[in-house]
Amino acid sequence: MLQAEIKKLAHDIFEGTVANRRQLHSNPELSFKEFKTSEFIKARLNEMGIAFQPMATTGIVAIITGDQPSTEIIALRADMDALPITEQNQVEYASANTGVMHACGHDAHTASLLGTAMILQSLKSKFGGTVKLIFQPGEEVLPGGASLMIKEGVLENPKPVAVIGQHVMPTMETGKVGMRKGKYMASKDDLYITVQGKGGHGAQPHENIDPVLIASHIIIALQQVVSRMANPTTASVLSFGKLLADGSTNVIPDKVYMEGTFRTLNESWRSKALEQMKKMAAGIAESMGGSCVVDIVPGYPFLINEEKLTGQVYEYAQEYLGKENMIDLDIWMASEDFAYYSQLADSCFYMLGAGNKAKGITSSLHTATFNIDENALAISTGLMAYIAVKRLRN
Fold first, then answer.
1. Taking the CB of residue 124, how many other CB atoms lie within 10 A of it?
2. Are residues 139 and 219 both part of a single domain?
3. Is the pLDDT of residue 394 over 90?
4. CATH number for the domain harbouring residue 276
5. 178 bridge partner residues
């Protein structure tokens, strides 16, 4: 039985998968600088006898072709970059690179895909068709490694009919898997706003043009774009996380600098909302005697899980894990550059439970204490291999 065979293979390679994950976790590298990570992956692929080629400098695409006759092609994706965070975990495999940490689980994603590759390589006689293994750099930083891999032809020659990815989720217990059909994750655009005024003494506001006050009005007013201009059924989020006004208790500065992010799941509304924000910010600043420059850096599109494919993947995961371990997810307003694949090919991006309350493994993604329950790696490798083989057979 395929399920039992793959579970045994996943069990047999579990220690090696954990070792790979720990090696990667100890040696994290920032986006588009994953040179040692790339060499590590290549070495492991060579050990397995799997052909590969470099792409987007540090990226890698590998190919496994089954022995049975078939022209079906699918792709499995893992990201490999780390974040500029200083790790606080007291573990033997903690980051050896100060200020750099695998705080989003990309080490687990890469180790998992290497494990899946090992399983698929040993199962070649059991399936036909081709599996593309995409080890992708730079998910955390614009323009996103996915966009560069696509430009260099990762979805061509051969062209996959489906792209599948997984992401560890510490808010879900190990053993659980979550999915959502249709729109799942949001687009992402970054806003950089500079408000220019005229500084001076805080006790003489009538002689100044207060950019702090102008900036405050802009922040509050722009929320109306979400609350009063968006269709209530269209998910939208606008958040400002940085505000710099280099004055003092009695010093009004000349200018104020702000940074924020806008996210939604509707491309036409996305464009309209951003344009409205620029007009509102400029208009408010002008009406108060100042000026405003709004620089918008376009980010990732929204991520959509193709309904038929995601239905299949859900079915396969349920077969592998049991119905009781499946979770139906809600929309998540975070963003992911896997979205680029989903805009061009039938795709499915699912969440892999990696938390464990009993072990105290509950920290969120992108935090200095993020970690995973490594028992999740016994599931991640086999599950993705099972999904791949079942999809190719069907």
1. 14
2. no
3. no
4. 3.30.70.360
5. 327, 351
Lookup result for tokens 């792209």 = 163
Specify which residues 248 forms β-bridges with: 251
Range of the domain at 107: 2-184+302-393
Which DSSP symbol is given to 91? -
CB 112 within 8 A of CB 377: yes
Q: How far apart are the first and last CA of the chain?
A: 16
> Does the structure show a pLDDT above 90 at 1?
no
- Residue 129 CA to residue 111 CA, distance in Å, equals 23
- Based on the domain organization, do 7 and 91 belong to the same domain? yes
Residues carrying an active site annotation: 81, 139
Could you say which of 298, 323, 340 is where a domain stops? 298
Q: How much is the pLDDT for 302?
A: 97
Which residue, 280, 298, 316, sits at the end of a domain? 298
43 with 125, same domain: the answer is yes
pLDDT mean across residues, the chain: 97
Residues 82 and 198 in one domain: no
Number of domains in the chain: 2
Over the stretch 350-373, which tens digit does the pLDDT of each residue have? 999 999 999 999 999 999 999 999
310, 288: one domain: no
pLDDT tens for residues 65-76?
Answer: 999 989 999 999
Residues 47 and 94 in one domain: yes
Q: What's the Cα-to-Cα distance from 358 to each of 88, 137, 138, 173, 326, rounded to whole Å?
A: 19, 33, 33, 10, 20
What dihedral angle (degrees, nearest 10) is formed by the CA atoms of 383, 379, 336, 43?
A: -90
CATH number at residue 68: 3.40.630.10
Kindly report the pTM of this predicted structure: 0.94
Residue with tokens 């080890």: 135
Strand partners, 164: 76, 348
Nearest-Å Rg of the Cα atoms of the chain is 24
pLDDT one-digit tens code per residue, 138-161: 999 999 999 999 999 999 999 999
Length of the chain: 394
CA-CA-CA-CA torsion sign (141, 147, 148, 149):
positive
Main-chain dihedrals φ then ψ at residue 138, nearest 5 degrees: 55, 40
Task: Say how far apart CA 26 and CA 101 lie, in whole Å.
Answer: 8
